[in-house]
Amino acid sequence: MLVVLAASTFLSFVFFWTHEIALKDQPVLPAYWNWLTGLFDGSSYTGLFRGPLWPQFVPAIGHTAALLLLTFLFVIPLTIGVAALAATHRNGPVDVLIRGVSYIAWAIPAFLLSLVLALAAVSVGGQHGLGPFAIAGFPGTCPPGLGLNAGVLGNCPSAGTGLTWVWNMFRYLTIPAFCLAIGFVGLHARYLRNGLLQTLDAPYITTARAKGLSERQVVRRHALRISVAPFVGALFADFGAIFGAALAVDWVFKLNGLGTLFVRQFPLDSYSPLDVYSIQLCLLITGALVLASSLLSDTLLTALDPRLRKAS
Q1: What phi, psi does 138 have (nearest 5°)?
Q2: Tally of domains in the chain
Q3: Whole-prediction pTM
Q4: Which domain does 41 fall in, by range?
Q5: CATH code, domain carrying 245
Q6: pLDDT tens for the 312 residues of the chain, in order
Q7: Which residues make Cβ contacts (< 8 Å) with residue 146, sequence separation at least 6?
Q8: Which DSSP symbol is given to 147?
């Protein structure tokens, strides 16, 4: 994992070094080493660059992490519920309807759904939001003056503390998390449904039915316990796609997370130099998170599946 991370950051750095004039006055290896050793003390970001980015990255990572956490809280129960409902109505109208909706949900990109829902929320709710749910921004911060909702929102209230803080986080992140979650629910619900159907055809499931268990009990007690482990592993293995979509959703809804921070590193005019070192830092954090999610996926799969624990 560390070798892949180092290779990816170095290759991307070489790409910028060959195209960016600001780096061509120094050899690539010393330039890369200076950037790498100056990540934490800020010495990489001098001269043409805008200073250390870690003070900006820490809250941005927190905002993106909150969005991803709520998204997973939506994806996991919705996927399990939808897949179980489809599997218990195999080839019936409910199953066919769920499969059709799942294909549509996965076909719509998260950023496109975000744009549509954001425009609809602005049209219906205005600056007061859509019911209890805020249109854009993050609790305690105001959206920047660029993008879809610039000039629409009123004053940004305080994030609050305790239960108020939890409620505000839920209000601000519900619509973005829904836009991010719906496509992955459609994707993984199909996979989990197929896994449940294979499990429901196993001999021990026939024995469970013969003992008088209802179909709902068979699915909940037996089939889901076996099928949910590959689903969780596949979901976390898909973290790279979820994280990439989260960057676009973050920019649309102005959550001031990693997506917003990443876009801000690109100059708005052709005269300002590209902040190569800051973009490299964005790529480093993104790559580290994706690779760490792969390790987490293997760990969770081993913890959930007793057969893998026995084999190891």
Answers
A1: -125, 145
A2: 1
A3: 0.79
A4: 2-311
A5: 1.10.3720.10
A6: 888 888 888 888 888 777 665 566 677 788 788 777 777 666 655 444 455 566 777 888 888 889 999 999 999 899 988 988 888 888 889 889 998 998 898 888 888 888 888 888 777 766 566 777 877 778 877 654 444 444 444 556 677 777 888 888 888 888 899 999 999 998 888 888 888 888 888 887 788 778 777 777 787 777 777 777 778 778 877 888 888 889 889 988 888 888 888 877 776 665 666 667 777 777 788 888 888 877 877 777 777 666 665 655
A7: none
A8: S
